[in-house]
UniProtKB/TrEMBL annotation:
<dbReference type="GO" id="GO:0016787">
    <property type="term" value="F:hydrolase activity"/>
</dbReference>
<comment type="similarity">
    <text>Belongs to the sulfotransferase 1 family.</text>
</comment>
<dbReference type="Pfam" id="PF00685">
    <property type="entry name" value="Sulfotransfer_1"/>
</dbReference>
<dbReference type="InterPro" id="IPR000863">
    <property type="entry name" value="Sulfotransferase_dom"/>
</dbReference>
<keyword id="KW-0808">Transferase</keyword>
<dbReference type="InterPro" id="IPR027417">
    <property type="entry name" value="P-loop_NTPase"/>
</dbReference>
<feature type="domain" description="Sulfotransferase">
    <location>
        <begin position="2"/>
        <end position="96"/>
    </location>
</feature>
<dbReference type="GO" id="GO:0008146">
    <property type="term" value="F:sulfotransferase activity"/>
</dbReference>
<keyword id="KW-0378">Hydrolase</keyword>
<protein>
    <recommendedName>
        <fullName>Sulfotransferase</fullName>
        <ecNumber>2.8.2.-</ecNumber>
    </recommendedName>
</protein>
Length: 107
């Protein structure tokens, strides 16, 4: 699959062919684990993050052991700082800024 065209890769993915096994089996396993052991697994879905970013950022903070204080919530830290800093608009503005730099990053 390494040198496959997009169409071939999509076909294989749709059929459950992948280096790590069927994708949906992984998703299903993590979803089930998060229900059985929520103290160890946090399963966040994009749709949920999009529909309720504040509630899910709070869940994430609690999960990693750093819940927001009542004062932080009242001051709007979640919405005004975290969600705003992590927005696509913010990333786009950083990308424009960083594209003016000559540094190339490679993974």
């Amino acid at each position: 699959m390494e040198d496959a065209s997009f169409e071939e890769a999509f076909d294989e993915f749709s059929q459950g062919i992948s280096l790590c096994g069927p994708y949906w089996d992984h998703i299903s396993g993590y979803s089930k684990a998060s229900l059985e052991r929520p103290e160890i697994f946090l399963f966040l879905k994009y749709e949920d993050m999009k529909n309720d970013p504040t509630g899910n950022v709070k869940r994430l903070a609690e999960f990693i052991g750093y819940p927001f204080t009542t004062q932080e919530e009242k001051e709007g830290v979640i919405e005004e700082s975290i969600i705003k800093m992590c927005s696509f608009e913010q990333f786009r503005s950083k990308q424009k800024w960083s594209s003016k730099r000559r540094t190339t990053y490679r993974a």
